[in-house]
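Section 4.2 – Deliverable D4.2 (structural model, holo form)

The reporting period included a commitment to supply a predicted holo structure for the target in complex with acetoacetyl-coenzyme A. Inputs used:
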Amino acid sequence: MTSVGIDAVELWTGNLKLDLAETFAVEKGKDPAYFTEGLGLRASSFPDSYEDIVTMGANAAKRLMDRKGLEPEDIGRIDVATESSFDNSKPLSTYIAGCLEQVYDGDFHHANKGERKFACIAGTQSVDDAYNWIRAGRNRGRKAIVVATDTALYERDDSGEATQGAGAVALLIDEDPDLVELSTEQGYGSADETDFLKPQQQFPSVDGKRSVQVYLARMREALEDYESVAGDVRLADFAYAPYHTPYPGMVRKAAALAYRHVTRDTEVEDELAETIGRQPRRETFDDDSAYQDAVREYMDALKDTDQYKSWYAATVEPTLSISRDVGNWYTASVHVARIAALKDAYDDDRDLAGENLLVASYGSGAQAEIHGETVQDGWREEVAALNVDEQLESRYDLSWSEYEEVHDRHNHEKDTELEEFTAPSGEFVFDGWGRMGERKYTYVE
Ligand code: CAA
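Output (structure tokens):
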């Protein structure tokens, strides 16, 4: 069977940042540890006044095409995943293709374009669509570009304000990929939920506490479904587990529950039983609340064991390193976590070829999806070409009042002009409105 997967990936962060401990916490009179330890975040990325979901997506896609030496005719499909779209009809992929056509010879007139929506999981769904298109043999030898791009902004003073972020990831999906091959096995956990939604509005209505519970419930369903097709997940089989990361604290909760699930009735549980006892089983309790208390007690003890801590430190913690400095990128977030994992192996000079990732995506509303990926021989060269650290370091550090102006600038209800904080260079920029209210873009050398 043809191997299909992610051939290359690129990331583009918004050019501004807000330091959460130094700026947000001080302004709000909050303990900085709430951000850095509780949520697990140091900073959020924001778009400068000339940036938006199109510029960030087009910039990531251009880096991808340049690096892989691609021309428009090599691309048969461009899908954009976002939950920040500004048009209910014209898809962002047409805007992004229009940007790219300004800088390449040729055009994307024969590429199929679309826009995918299912909250944060739409990026992974677009990768699926591209995978299926190639597997079905409809690609005529061409490749697909998937762009996941979002400005994850919340209403001012919303509980989600600390988890904001803005950026894009572009992925090249192809046969015989250089980076990772995708498993055919997938597990889903999907239900009609109202935890986080945007009914015809820019900023989300969020039931934050419930959204956390829904994330965990759907992830558990997806894991069980994945195991029903791929067999039991064994800890030793996966080098990293990149999760959708609305904030690292969310993943910390999900990872502990996943560990309990996959170690049940295994030698790991037997070994742990010597120090913390066996996992509580529902059938040995008279009622749910006694069982839930016992589970909570077990989880607290589990998180303190050497076995759990060393698994978490090796398999999950490295996937959070970029997210800690950029915040939530919604559709791009799980793809940022994958980049962080691969970068960790690269920085450690580890040979990852042939090893597996367990990738866990999630979108509010709600759906989780879990699949496996196998790292390919070309991964080291791909990761070496990324400039993530340089991008993060060169962001402009906003003061609180500047942050307020930037939030207003990107609020669709407000018509706020704002002088840019950074000078665009070698990137697409927003440069005004067209005659039908469309957004216009240009490339700045
Ligand atoms: N020092 C250290 N830790 C502290 C602390 C301090 N001073 N103060 C609080 N904490 C800890 C808390 O104990 C808590 O830890 P645990 O999670 O381990 O219990 C953590 O900091 C967070 O504290 P709260 O739960 O009190 O935080 P909150 O209620 O203010 O906000 C939130 C959390 C509700 C998730 C909020 O950030 C939010 O609404 N976010 C938007 C929605 C979201 O991201 N949901 C995630 C699941 S949905 C999803 O994944 C889709 C998506 O992308 C949006």
